[in-house]
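Sample entry copied in:
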Amino acid sequence: MPILRAEDIVRMRQAVRERAVAQGFSLVDQTKIVTAACELARNTLDYGGGGEVLIEQLGNGVRTGLRLTFKDEGPGIPDLEQALRDGYTSGGGLGLGLGGAKRLSNEFHVDTKVGGGTRVTITRWR
């Protein structure tokens, strides 16, 4: 699913919520995954110059979940440790995006390369 304009974030949010409902997520877990997704989509658009998100429904026989992978070809994150710190922002936001998304997820992984883009993968289990 492309993330090239603000309208794409709205569509992505709806798609994530629909899949969370279909997976049987509680309202609290729906809110957590949707909030994390919105933060990461906004980062993809604002800092990565746009990109895409892959939404995967997971199941391993015991539990179900959602995995979201946000990918851009932007400038990358020069200091990931600093970017994950609450209060740090390279823009005009509150500095809660990456760290907040990490706290709202059960699994969180970032691959980034300066000049080579960023890939953020989050998973929320039910």
Notes: The two ends are 23 Å apart (CA to CA). The chain has a mean pLDDT of 90. Strands lie at 2-3, 51-59, 64-72, 107-113, 117-125.
